[in-house]
Each structure stands twice: as structure tokens, then as C-alpha cells.
Amino acid sequence: MKRSEKAEKIAVMLEELYPETPVPLDHENAFQLLVAVLMSAQTTDLKVNEVTPALFAKAPNAKAMAQLPVEVILADIRQVGLAPTKAKNIRRMSEMLMETHAGEVPASFEALEALPGVGHKTAGVVMAQSFGVPAFPIDTHIHRLAARWGLSNGKNVDKTEKDLKAVFPKELWNKLHLQIIFFGREYCPARGHDLTTCPICSWTATKKRIAEEMKR
């Protein structure tokens, strides 16, 4: 089966499984989403959602966050991975938003990626979910599943992003990004996964891929 045919069938299946795609990270505005996504690196969305209410109660916007001492931010997010670095980045990012963007989150990949702690994936999530700009942020679930499904060779996230953008229509990117994450969490774990019984891996994965996964 061609990659384009696989992609078309996968998109239909994911739409049936996940017609609604709520953003997993709790937020009330673009700034809070930006902070939450920044925090989600090497941390579960569940953990991020546990620590953000206390932080956002103190600082719901960039102006308030820029005025918080790093120690106060760190105290609230200490349970997430790499908390000391993230606390410094959140404070400096908020200061930069005040200095260069009047406290508003910019709707530009270039401007977002110039902020401390904001990489291409984080920028992509914000552009997609806050501004509706087509993006295909690649997290660990998407990177792994794209390789299992034979839609990308999985060499790196940049290649995976390019490959997925090539086979899925642009108008589906923002929703598919979340649908694939939801599918990965529910059906397609990283380890101990039987590809032959998976609703998608069972018909998309090559025999070689299935054999490789069984050895893990």
C-alpha cells in the first residue's frame, strides 16, 4: 500500500475514534498554553495540569509572570522534569514578551522560537491551537507511530514532520496532531506493544518492523 493510501485510511480511522480533540493541557489563553507546553517537555500532560493552577492563579498573563521571582515559579512547578531550567525560562520568556510584544504571545514561528525554552514543537502547538495556523508538532508519540506505520523512516523529528506534512492534507494537520497523540496513548505504547493486534499497526507495519518490535 502506498504511503498516501495509508495516510488517507489512517485519517478516516482516527476521525472515527477521536471526532473531538480537546487540547490536553489546561489553559485559558495563549500565554498559559505557551507556558504549559514549555513545561511539558520530559513531563506528562497530567503532571503539568496538576501544577499549573497554582502558578496561573498567581500569574495568569505575561505581565504578572514577569514580576514573579524565579524561586516562586520554581516552587509551584518543582514536580515537573527540569524544573529549575524551566522556571528561569518561564520568567525570562515573560519578560521578553513584555519587552518586545507588549505582553502578547506572537503569532509567528520565528518570534516564538526566539523566546527562551521555546523550540519548534512548542511553537507549533501554540500556532496550531491558539492561532489556528496549520502546523504538525512532532512529539514522541507521533514520531514513534509515524515510523511504525511506515509513513516516515523515523531518523529525526524534522524528517518525520516533513514526511507527515507531505502525506496528510494541510487542513487536517492541527487535528491529526492531537488524534495521533490520543491514539498513541490509548493503543500504541512504546514498549510491550503487539503490533499485530493494534487497530492501525496491524495493517501498516512491515513484517520487518513487527519482528524488530517483538525483540524489544
Question: How is this structure best described in words?
Answer:
This protein is mainly α and 216 residues long. It folds into two domains: 96 residues, Helix-hairpin-Helix base-excision DNA repair enzymes (C-terminal) (Endonuclease Iii, domain 2); 102 residues, Hypothetical protein, domain 2 (Endonuclease III, domain 1), CATH 1.10.340.30. Helix content is 63%, strand content 0%. It contains 13 helices and no strands. α5 crosses α6. The chain starts with a helix and ends with a helix.
Briefly, what is this?
The protein has helices at residues 3-17, 30-39, 45-58, 62-66, 70-77, 83-101, 109-113, 120-131, 140-148, 157-167, 173-187, 201-204, 207-215. With 216 residues, the chain is mainly α.
